[in-house]
Specification:
disordered N terminus, 16 helices, D-Maltodextrin-Binding Protein, domain 2, alpha+beta
Length: about 350
Amino acid sequence: MLQKYKVVLTALALSTALALSGCAASVESPASANGTDEATTELVQVKMIKFSAASDNYAMSLGYEEGIFAKHGIELDFIDAPQVGANQVASLLNGQLDVGNGSITGVMAAVSKGIAVQVFSAVAADNMMDEHTLYDTLVAADSDIHSFKDLEGKIVAVNSLKSTWQSSVSEAIAKDGGDPALVEFVQLGFPDQVPALTNGHVDAIFTSQPFATTMLGQGFRSIGDAQAIALDNQRGVATILQASERFLSEKPDVAQKFIDALQEASEYANENPEEVRDLAVRLAGATGDAEASIRNAPLPFYTTEIDADGVESWGELLVKFGYVETTPAASDVLWVAP
């Protein structure tokens, strides 16, 4: 798993040794390593939440292993902290974490309560590869559900409630002429959704990769990518990086270095999908059918870009379905480098 990361870069190993000996950590630039430039880049430590196994994080994982973050002067110090929700926000506010990740709606909910956190980068966007989508709404092969409207009166599992996941399915139902208030939503993590649908405990799931590809291969049916339908955008952004306002105001240069590193890692991942899949297979320790599912599954479109229109679209859905009364302005949610 991702917790088993080993530092594979000599530069990062050197920086750790120097830190332990009380010396300033630095790495040679590519030019100085070739003897053409004596400049060095000092590594700034950033306390980053440990990457989850979600495909949204593969570009960051690959960028770390390829030394892209170190190239931009960032040393990632992986911290065990809650992956989602208010507990992760608390870790950001008390300084246990510098950078966390989660959903855009989670940050919006926090900001609406006066909590001093902001989004400073996207991580990944929805995507379609070979006519298959990153996110998918699945039902059993013999289910009488053939459209989102057919979900009325059914039980639907989503990764989190009153979030991008539930908002997406609710809007897809509404656009199909149905009433999402007649649907029972339950919260189940992606791995737990699989047996729940298999055993008939829920009628549908809204899931991500590689779970969707695995289940489609087992005969489950897709009724569509709820997020793409809800946002009318196949490249909608839901996964983001967040930090406290204090960190962003005190260390804007570090935040910008992080964004620059992640953008380079994102471009590298988009251009080298097989390297991303190799990484995913290795981190999961996957073989056989599990490996095949990972290699055949669509990948996210990796990007750091998120705009005000995207934030406002999610805010409108949260209000529309009564998850919140009001949402903060996009300018309050998104950090802008000074």
